[in-house]
Request: fold
Amino acid sequence: MQAHHYPFIDLAVHASIRDRFSKGDAVAVLSPDLGGVLWANGAAASLFGFDNIYDALDEGLAGQVATRRQIESALSGLRRTGRRQAFMMRLSSGFSRSMTPASLEDITLPDGERALLLVSSQAGQILSPGARARQIISGFEGTGTHVAVLDKDGRVLAASSTFDEIGLAQS
Reply:
């Protein structure tokens, strides 16, 4: 499979992704050989150590040796059993280390290509609507992308710092 990136919205609404994405989970779509990150939200970019989504897409897991090794181990189980693999990811940030639950499963993309879906949940943490909205749009700052999350009445719950530049009136 030749790795290419998918439009953000095309995969944000994918049946296997949308509920996890809307909960604020870290969600990434990886090529079957782990050679590329095909799609990621801001939480996944952060999980991989990147400041924004586009850096995660451009650099992939190449520089993430420990993270890739953990995913490869889960991938081995997935290939052996054909079932979703739950595992704990060890994360490092500076001098601190932590563990986060994650899962890896096979998915079919809208164009029929196969890929891997990596999800790391908030481990039972319930986010307020505002915090969840901020988590959903995280990873777009500094990229020139205008993005916002609206409530059912069209009010902005969270927006990128550049969102006002597009000139949409707030209700």
User: Anything to note?
Assistant: The beta strands are 26-30, 37-40, 85-93, 96-108, 114-120, 148-150, 156-159. The chain is about 30% helix and 25% strand. The first strand starts at residue 26 and ends at 30. The radius of gyration is 16 Å.
